[in-house]
UniProtKB/TrEMBL annotation:
Protein name: RILP-like protein 1
RH2 domain boundaries: 308-375
GO molecular function term, any single one: protein dimerization activity
CDD domains recorded: RILP-like
Gene3D superfamilies, alphabetized: 1.20.58.1770, 6.10.230.10
RH1 domain span: 15-102
Annotated spans, Disordered: 260-310
Protein family according to the UniProt entry: Belongs to the RILPL family.
Compositionally biased region (Basic and acidic residues): 260-270
Keyword Transport on entry: yes
Comp. bias intervals (Acidic residues): 293-303
Length: 404
C-alpha cells in the first residue's frame, strides 16, 4: 500500500515541477490545478509532522491565491488567442493589399500597351491615307493615256508601287502581331482576375474554418474544465461517503461491544445472585474472568483503505445502501441496549449514545467554484477517514472552507 501511495505522489511531484518550471506566459489552467494538487500533498506532509493547527490560517489564503492565479491564467490565454487572431487578420489584410497593388500594376501595363497600340494604329492610318492619296494620283496619271509618258517615268512609277506594296505588307503584319499581343494580354489579365477571385474565396473559406475551430476549441476547453470540476466533486463526495461509512461502522462496533458488556454484566449479576442465594459467598474473581473471556466478542477493526483511486456510480449506490443498513442495525442495537438499561440500570438511561450525525455531502457544493478547494479537501480529508489524523475540532476551518 505504501508503494501505491508513493507512485502517485512521485507522479504528482513531477507534474508540479514541470508546471513550476514553465514561463509565466505559458501557464494554463491545468498547470494551476497541478500546482494546487502539489500544495495539497505538501499540506499532508505538514499535517503529518506538526498537526492541523499550523495550517488553519494558511489554507484559506493559499486557496485564494490559487483562485486569483487561475483567473489571471484564463485571462492571459484569452489575450494570447486574441493576439494570434489579430496577427492573422493583419497578414490577410497585407496579402489583400499586395494583390490589389499587383492588379493595379497589371492594369497600368495594359493601359501602356493600349496607348502604344493606339499610337501605332494612328501611324498606320496616316500612312494608309497617304497611300490612298498617292493611289488617286496614280489613277489620275493612268487616265491620261493619250499623253505619252517617257520610259524613265514609267519605271519610276512602277518602282514606287512595289515599294508601297512592301510597306503596306509590313504595316499589316505589324498590326496583326500587335493585335495578337493585345489578345494575349487580355487573356492573361482575365486569368489573373480569376486567380484573384479564387484566392478571395479561399480566404473567406479559411476565415470561416478558423472561426469554427476557435468555437470548437472554446467548447472543448469549457467541457474540460467542467469534467475536471465534476471529477473533483465526485472524488470528494466518495471520500466523504467513505468517511461516513467508517464512522457508522465504528459506532456499530462500539454499540455491539457495549451491548455485549451489558449482557455479560447481567450474566455476572445473575451468577452472583444465584451464588449468594445458595452459599452467601461471592464468586471468585477467576470465574468472573472466565465468564468475561468466554463472552468477550472478537471485534474486527473496521479500518478500510480510504485512498482508493476511483468510485463508480454503482459503488456509490452500494455504499449508500450499506450505510442505510448499518443505520438500521444501529437503531435496533440502541433499542436493545435501552431495553437492557431499563431493566438493570435505570439511572443511566440519560447517558445513551446517539448515532453521530452524518457529515455534509461534498457533492452539494456550488458548481461555479474553481475546483481548487475540492483539491485541498481531497488532499487532507482521506487521511482523516483512514484514521491517520484525528477528527478533532481543529479541522473545522478546512471543512468550512470546502462547504462555504
Amino acid at each position: 500500500m505504501s508503494e501505491a501511495k508513493i507512485k502517485p505522489r512521485s507522479h504528482m511531484e513531477t507534474c508540479v515541477t514541470s508546471s513550476l518550471d514553465r514561463p509565466a506566459a505559458e501557464l494554463t489552467v491545468t498547470d494551476v490545478y497541478d500546482i494546487a494538487a502539489g500544495l495539497g500533498q505538501e499540506f499532508e506532509r505538514v499535517i503529518d509532522r506538526f498537526g492541523c493547527e499550523s495550517l488553519v490560517g494558511v489554507v484559506p489564503k493559499v486557496v485564494r491565491v490559487l483562485e486569483l492565479l487561475e483567473a489571471l491564467v484564463s485571462r492571459a490565454a484569452a489575450g494570447h488567442e486574441a493576439e494570434e487572431l489579430r496577427r492573422e487578420l493583419d497578414r490577410l489584410r497585407q496579402e489583400r493589399s499586395d494583390r490589389f497593388a499587383q492588379d493595379k500594376r497589371h492594369q497600368r501595363e495594359l493601359e501602356l500597351v493600349e496607348d502604344v497600340w493606339r499610337g501605332e494604329v494612328q501611324d498606320l492610318l496616316s500612312q494608309i491615307n497617304q497611300l490612298h492619296t498617292e493611289n488617286k494620283k496614280l489613277l489620275v496619271s493612268l487616265s491620261l493615256k493619250e499623253f505619252p509618258v517617257p520610259e524613265e517615268e514609267q519605271q519610276q512609277q512602277g518602282g514606287m508601287s512595289e515599294k508601297d506594296k512592301q510597306v503596306m505588307k509590313k504595316l499589316m503584319d505589324s498590326v496583326n502581331k500587335q493585335r495578337d499581343e493585345i489578345r494575349a494580354r487580355d487573356h492573361e489579365l482575365t486569368l489573373k482576375n480569376e486567380d484573384v477571385d479564387a484566392l478571395q474565396m479561399q480566404q473567406q473559406r479559411v476565415i470561416r474554418i478558423n472561426q469554427d475551430l476557435r468555437h470548437r476549441v472554446g467548447v472543448m476547453e469549457a467541457q474540460g474544465k467542467s469534467l475536471i470540476r465534476q471529477r473533483a466533486e465526485l472524488e470528494a463526495a466518495a471520500q466523504a461517503r467513505q468517511q461516513e461509512l467508517v464512522a457508522v461502522q465504528r459506532e456499530v462496533t462500539r454499540l455491539r461491544k457495549e451491548l455485549q458488556e451489558r449482557k455479560m454484566e447481567k450474566k455476572v449479576a445473575d451468577v452472583e445472585e444465584t451464588s449468594s442465594s445458595r452459599s452467601g459467598i461471592s464468586p471468585p474473581a477467576s470465574s468472573l474472568t472466565t465468564v468475561w473471556e468466554d463472552t468477550e466478542p472478537e471485534t474486527d477493526s473496521p479500518e478500510q483503505d480510504s485512498n482508493k483511486p476511483r468510485f463508480t456510480l454503482q459503488e456509490l449506490r452500494d455504499v449508500l445502501q450499506e450505510k442505510n443498513e448499518l443505520k438500521a442495525q444501529v437503531f435496533l442495537l440502541q433499542e436493545e441496549l435501552a431495553h437492557y438499561k431499563s431493566e438493570e440500570f435505570e439511572d443511566d438511561i440519560s447517558f445513551m449514545v446517539c448515532p453521530p450525525s452524518p457529515p455534509p455531502i461534498a457533492g452539494c457544493t456550488d458548481q461555479g467554484e474553481s475546483g481548487i478547494r475540492s483539491l485541498i479537501f481531497t488532499a487532507i480529508m482521506p487521511m482523516v477517514a483512514a484514521g491517520l489524523i484525528a477528527d478533532d475540532p481543529t479541522l473545522l476551518p478546512i471543512r468550512r472552507l470546502f462547504f462555504v
